[in-house]
Design a protein that fits this description.
Layout lengths: L1 E2 L2 E5 L5 E3 L7 E5 L2 E4 L2 E6 L4 E6 L4 H24 L4 H27 L14 E2 L17 E6 L6 E6 L2 E2 L7 E3 L13
Parallel strand pairs: 4-12
Antiparallel strand pairs: 1-11, 2-3, 2-10, 4-5, 6-7, 6-8, 9-10
Helix pairs in contact: 1-2
The chain binds zinc ion (2 copies).
Length: about 190
């Protein structure tokens, strides 16, 4: 099975990366719990490659979500006074509590870490968002479109161009684990 993606190549020095860099499973481990890692495509000068870069841009969405969840919980408690404690209401409460826990966890992570986003490959803080426009190709089978992205290779000055390049998917996905500080947890012998 192959998935559409783009090779990104600097038109000056030939450095390359791939939009597939963010694919895979990424999780923070905290207190024995797993939380998913939000990530965007970045360029890391230390890896000299496209990398998955931590992303902490969802603070507003989380606050809105938390307020909604709090209201939801209030409604549940009111209903509980008049209703029997049925199985579905227990499940609903657990679901709401899990959601609340996840959102508050992530919100405190963002407040702690925003501005210290790390390259999820090497841990460097020098990576920056690949802010170029990555074109959506029309057809994979013929006439692949090569397009400028507008993203300049940091420290080089060349511009990345995007070249369609479907990637063959490996069936084995090795999860990547991190501490809350964005440092990789080595899971030796895990496979
Ligand atoms: Zn370059
Ligand atoms: Zn890196």
């Amino acid at each position: 099975m192959s998935m559409p993606c783009m090779t990104l190549e600097c038109d000056k020095c030939g450095a390359t990366g791939s939009t597939s860099a963010t694919w895979g499973e990424y999780a923070y481990i905290d207190g024995g719990e797993e939380y998913s890692v939000n990530r965007i495509l970045g360029w890391c000068p230390d890896c000299a490659n496209c990398v998955p870069l931590e992303e902490f841009g969802d603070e507003e969405r989380l606050i809105t979500g938390l307020m909604e969840a709090v209201q939801d919980t209030g409604g549940y408690l009111r209903k509980r006074i008049v209703l029997f404690l049925s199985k579905s209401s227990v499940q609903r409460r657990n679901y709401t509590l899990n959601k609340l826990e996840e959102m508050t966890w992530r919100l405190s992570l963002i407040r702690e870490r925003k501005g210290t986003e790390k390259c999820l490959r090497c841990g460097s803080s020098n990576a920056q968002e690949f802010s170029g426009g990555i074109p959506v190709h029309k057809s994979w089978s013929h006439d692949p479109d090569i397009a400028a992205t507008g993203f300049k290779h940091p420290g080089c000055g060349g511009e990345f161009i995007a070249i369609p390049n479907p990637v063959r998917l490996s069936l084995v996905i090795t999860p990547n684990y991190y501490t809350v500080d964005g440092d990789r947890i080595i899971t030796e012998g895990r496979d």
